[in-house]
Structure prediction request, 274 residues.
Amino acid sequence: MKLARLNRLFGTSGNCFDVAIDHGMFNERTFLAGIENMRAAIDIIAAAAPDAIQLPPGTAPLLQSIPGKARPALVLRTDIANIYGNPLPSALFSEIIDHPVEQAIALDAACVVVNLLMLPNQPEVYRACVRNVNSLKRECEIYGMPLMVEPLVMQDNSKGAYMVDGAIDKILPLVRQAAELGADIIKADPCDDVNEYHRVIEIAQGLPVLVRGGGKVSDQEILARTKVLMEQGARGIVYGRNVIQHANPGGMTRALMAIVHDGATAEEASRHLA
Prediction:
C-alpha cells in the first residue's frame, strides 16, 4: 500500500512539509537545542499541523500517542552516523537500525528515510550508505513502504562541523544515484544558487524532491529561499533547526506551510510569525 502511505505524506496540493526532529539520533550536543524536551517539541509542532514529522524509533511513539486523526504523518529515521562532530572520530560509521521497515510498520510510519552520505576522503562511509539504501529498498518494496533517500554532500570537516557543500555539480550525481538506487522521494540540499535548483529537479527523473533546510538562518532568508525553491519545482521541504530552534516554532511551521501549500510569498507567510 505504498500509494496510501504517500497520500498520507503529501497534502492535497501535492506537496509536503516534513519537520525533522530526529537530530538526537546523531550524538551531537549542538543538535539538541530546542528539543531537550521531545514531548513538548513534538506537541508544539504537531499542533501547527505540518504534513509530517521526522523522528527516530525511540521518540516516534510520542507523536503516535497524540489522540485523534489529524496528527502529522510519521517519517521514520532508520540510520545513525557519527560524522557530525568536530574533530571527527578516528573511525566513522553509518549503520541502519535493526529491522527498519518492520519497526516502521509497527510505528505506523508513512515513510522511512535514510542517508546517502558523501564526505571528502571517506569512501567507507559512502559505501556503508549504499549498502543501507540497497537493504532498505527491497524491504520497502515487499511491505509497500515509501523510501526517502537523503543524498548529502559535505565539505571537509576541518572547515567546521556539519558543513554541507552546495556545489550543484556535486549534488546532481548523488541525487541521480539516489534515484537509480530506487528512492521514492529525494531529500536534497539546496544548491549555492537556488535559482539553479530546477536542475536538481530534472536529474531526479520525476521523483518528488523535498529540500533540506540546513543550518539556522534568518526568518526572511528561510522564507524567501523556500519560495524560490518551490517555484523551481520542489515538491516540498524537510526543515528542522529553522523550525525547532525558532522562538515561535508553531508560527514558523504555519508560515512555511503557507508557502508550500498555498503559494504564499515570503512577506505573506511572515504574518504567521507576528
Q: What stands out?
A: Strands lie at 16-20, 52-55, 73-77, 79-81, 94-96, 111-118, 147-153, 185-188, 209-212, 236-239. The mean pLDDT is 95. The longest strand covers residues 111-118. The chain is about 40% helix and 15% strand.
